[in-house]
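Milestone 3.1: sequence recovery, worked example.
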C-alpha cells in the first residue's frame, strides 16, 4: 500500500497532504483532504465517510456523521458509519474516512470496519490500521465505545502497549 502526496498551495506555502491506504478499498484522511478533488481523483476515492464537516464532491457518495472527538460515540452512529463503509466496499467503491486530524474518529471507524469485514478482534484491527496509518490513536472515550459496541474488554492501556 502507498501514500500518494498532493501538493496544495495554502497561504502561498506549499504543503503536502496525504491520505493513508489501509486496504485497497479503505483510506484514512483529514478534513482538508476531503476538499482536494485532485487527491481524491488520484486515489480513485468514490465514497467518503465524513466526521468533521460535510464536503460534497462530484461523483463521490458522501455520508456526514456529526461525531465529536473525546466523548463516547453513540452505538447508532457507529452502526451507521460501519454500514456505510461496508456497503460501499461491497459495491466495489474506495472509501475515505475523514475526521478533523485523521487520528481518532476516522481511525476508530477504520478499525471497526476491519473488525466487521475481516472478522478481526479489535486489537488486531487496531494494529492493521496503525501499520499503514501510524498516527492512529482513538481517544479513550471513543476506544471504550468501540469495546462496548463489539463487546470486547480491551483497556486503553493495553491498546497503548501495541
Amino acid at each position: 500500500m502507498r501514500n500518494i502526496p498532493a501538493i496544495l498551495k495554502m497561504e502561498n506555502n506549499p504543503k503536502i497532504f496525504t491520505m493513508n491506504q489501509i486496504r485497497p478499498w479503505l483510506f484514512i484522511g483529514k478534513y482538508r483532504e476531503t476538499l482536494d478533488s485532485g487527491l481524491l481523483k488520484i486515489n480513485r476515492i468514490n465514497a467518503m465517510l465524513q466526521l468533521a464537516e460535510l464536503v460534497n464532491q462530484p461523483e463521490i457518495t458522501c455520508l456526514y456523521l456529526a461525531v465529536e472527538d473525546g466523548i463516547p460515540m453513540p452505538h447508532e452512529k457507529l452502526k451507521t458509519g460501519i454500514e456505510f463503509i461496508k456497503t460501499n466496499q461491497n459495491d466495489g467503491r474506495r472509501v475515505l474516512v475523514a475526521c478533523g486530524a485523521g487520528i481518532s474518529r476516522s481511525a476508530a471507524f477504520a478499525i471497526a470496519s476491519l473488525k466487521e469485514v475481516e472478522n478481526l478482534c479489535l486489537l488486531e484491527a487496531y494494529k492493521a490500521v496503525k501499520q499503514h496509518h501510524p498516527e492512529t490513536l482513538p481517544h479513550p472515550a471513543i476506544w471504550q465505545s468501540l469495546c462496548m459496541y463489539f463487546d470486547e474488554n480491551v483497556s486503553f492501556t493495553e491498546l497503548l502497549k501495541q
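The longest strand covers residues 6-10. Residues 6-160 form a domain with the Protein-Tyrosine Phosphatase; Chain A fold (CATH 3.90.190.10).
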